[in-house]
Amino acid sequence: MDATYTWELLANGVVLGSSYALLAAGLAVIFGVLNVVNFAHGALYMLGAFAAYFFIPLTGYWIGILLTAATMAILGIVLQEGLLRRLPPDGAFSRSMLLTLGLAMIIQNGAIVLWGAGPRQLPEDSRPQGHLLLGDVIIPTGRAFIVVVAVATLGALYLLLNRTQVGRAMRGVSQNPTAALVVGISPERIGRLAMALGVGLAGIAGATLTPVFTVSPQMGITIVFKVFAIVVIGGLGSVPGAVIVAYLVGMLESFAGGYGSAMTQSISVFLFMIAIMLVRPQGLFSTEVRV
Amino acid sequence: MTATLGAAAPPALQVTGLGKSFMGVAALSDVEFTLSTGTVLGLIGPNGSGKSTALDCVTGFVRPDSGQILLDGESIFGKAPHLIARAGLVRTFQTVKLYDQLTLDEHMSLSLRGLYKAGRSGASRRRSAERKRATSWLVEFGLEQLRSAPAGILSYGQKKLLALAAVLVTQPRIALLDEPLAGVNPRIIDLIRDAILQANTEGQTFLIIEHNVEFITSCCSEVVVLDAGKKLAAGPPSVIWDDPAVYEAFLGRKGDGHAG
Amino acid sequence: MTAALHVHEPEETNDVMSRKSSSPLHKWLGGRHLGPLLPTAAAIALVPAVVTNDYFIDVANLALTFMVLGTAFNLLYGYVGMLSFAQVAFVGIGGYASSWLVTHTDLWQPVAFLAGGGVAALVAAVVGAVTVRLSEGAFAIITLSFTLLCAVVAAEWTGVTGGRQGIFGLPAPSLSLGPVDLVADTPRSYYYLLAGFTVLALWAMQRLVRSSAGTVMIAIRDNEPLAKAQGYATNNYKLAVFSFCAFVTGLTGALHVFRLTTIDPSIFDFYLMQVMLIIVILGGAGTFWPVAYSAVLFAVLPEMLRMADEARLIVYGALLVLGLLFLPQGVGGFLRARAMNRQLRDMRGGRS
């Protein structure tokens, strides 16, 4: 294997990992703060992709991504206010899971009804042109942008969670729900922010994919498997864990890419997840205290 | 083990060197105490001192980092909670735990079936004796009328009574109670205290976590004082006043921090 | 309140410890808990007499299938509290195992069908051994992943599963009893097969939940730590129920697949799982017969609401969301709470 090829695989791994990281971080935030396993995450990712599909031809790449992020963040707040908040806080954990599943059903099938089941692709002139040259490695611009957007977003997320008061409150809530009340920041505000972030991240992940790949209503279903596995392995509430495992999985997938069929890959990921659960049921990076 | 003159049976419960940390913070360090058969041992200390954690460790709900836990001389360290319960360490929880959808009768029979030595293989005569005992507990606690009602409808005080009844009806080797008096009105406090005293005169061994000083002095033959995860002192309840360090820890700083 | 210390009459309580004495057969069949089973069985038996159109008989076949699938899922989620998305996987595993056995071996058909259930139960035992002890969220995600994995395996493992084409041309189930040849090759004859199976399966599952093991299941659902503190090996119970439900589901899957005479990876699609979910949630998780009847409704509904698959799923999704928000205990739970309130009022009103 010559050096260029290895670098290409590496670059590809970073691209894949970036998408996974955005999605996994969103899931981790929603679970950590709201204790909700968001089964609609894949559907929201797909919505983000479609939103970008409609925005980008009108506004260009960067504005399109920003508009999508904003739209999805608002949608997150709407979902929180309209649906999630109405569940009693001491209610069964499974209720919120099933609620998001119902939501996924509506969004997924709604998309098929509205836009048809077939794949679509942005017209050539709306897509980012050209490619980057890193040494001998050629990276199409669209893919490079995925990494750029992801790194910027995750960096902003890091700053938010670690340097702002409300972010720290969010992390506090994720470890101890009653603590947030003590700090004095309203739990409603934190919940809205968590959903805005979580859904926004999913939306950005979808949006960055639109210019590079095809968009279809089914795209959320195929990726959801991996992202859930990533979050479970990383530890359901841990954002850094999710991001780290996401990039690892991206790398692994890129390097193992040619080797093994889709079946062996899926089996491997599943077995890996089971293995981690055997050794460390709370995930690799979780801060959960398990009894 | 041959009985030689002067050889004593091992104590009911012997804990040494118990340690547990959560995320780098030591909840317990080097805690040790001994519980003799037939005594009521009070585990006391300010909020956050590790009392509930110690109870969780002993009953298997939390895996300790270090230490030795001997029940009648045999190690139960690291065993699963249901096995420890079957071995005779039966507990209540600080947040009262019940089955909301099951009736009071079902609570009692579940408890008996799971824990009582006679168990499910018993003859019908034994089972009817169990039933009688369960009924008398419900009657004593004024719950008999609601025996067919789901436990979810009970008031907080009634729930605590039911949880206690479900433990005592099984006549466990050791009954471990986590703040049995917290949050209930004086009438129920009396019911609970009388039940504990009555059971103790009949030979029931207790380990009780409590804050209620009056209860501790009147019911406990011995106390172990924890503070910030460490054992501060042990002795008769009067140690609360006699030992200035204990006095300060127990009464001086009481009320800071969150539930331990 | 008097302190009269008289032993409470067992018949007056629905206590597990007491069993009203009756004939041994009556007791074994389930005693006074037989309840709606007999009228339901009678109704099931009457359907072929009332329904003449073969097409609607097939709808009834689907209804019977849903009744068993929905009840098995209800056992897992409603009675033990395990939200598992693997039930669909076991339908498929049962279907594929029995299909392969019938088309590739000379195994006696009934055994092949039972083996379908058996393979599903075995797989469940292996997966469950690792996962039933995990948190609710992890368990849900892993069972979901497992189903997705099965879909991929079914599509790729062409040698065994027939790949994306699947296995088709499955023979009609047949049984030779001496001179009589029973063949289920028409919707009507298949109905008799399914009807017998459904009544049997429902009886078995009801027997389980009304037994003392069933009470432990509910205890695990309501408060697992307390169940452990009361000496119950909760993970063993969960694993046992998980495997048992997989067996029933796998066997149902086999019967379902042979009725369609074909199986392909689409059996692992989310559609079935979403139907099972909505049957249990709207019927009332943890209530037995309302869920069984809810299953019939959702088998028949698509026929009454003729709409595209996607539109129907949007309706189901909306029903699920609305149900969870406003009637989380389902119709069955609502009815039960109402009956309970009435009973409590009587209890408190006067010494009964």
TrEMBL record, chain A:
Q: Which CDD domains match?
A: TM_PBP1_LivH_like
What biological processes does GO assign it? Answer: amino acid transport
Q: Which residues cross the membrane?
A: 14-34, 39-56, 62-84, 96-117, 137-161, 193-215, 227-249, 256-279
Q: Which GO terms describe its molecular function?
A: transmembrane transporter activity
Q: Which domain of life is it from?
A: Bacteria
Where is this protein found? Cell membrane
Q: What is this protein called?
A: Branched-chain amino acid ABC transporter permease
Q: Please report the organism this UniProt entry assigns to the protein.
A: Nonomuraea deserti
TrEMBL record, chain C:
Tell whether Transmembrane helix is among the UniProt keywords: yes
Q: What is this protein called?
A: Branched-chain amino acid ABC transporter permease
Q: Which Pfam families match?
A: BPD_transp_2
**Which InterPro entries does this chain map to?**
ABC_transp_permease (IPR001851), LivM-like (IPR043428)
Keywords, sorted A to Z: Cell membrane, Membrane, Transmembrane, Transmembrane helix
Source organism of this protein record: Nonomuraea deserti
Its localization reads: Cell membrane
Q: How does it sit in the membrane?
A: Multi-pass membrane protein
Respond yes or no to whether keyword Membrane is given for this record.
Answer: yes
**Which parts pass through the membrane?**
34-52, 59-79, 85-103, 110-132, 138-157, 190-209, 239-258, 270-293, 313-335
According to the UniProt entry, its GO molecular function terms are: branched-chain amino acid transmembrane transporter activity
The record's Gene Ontology cellular component field reads:
plasma membrane
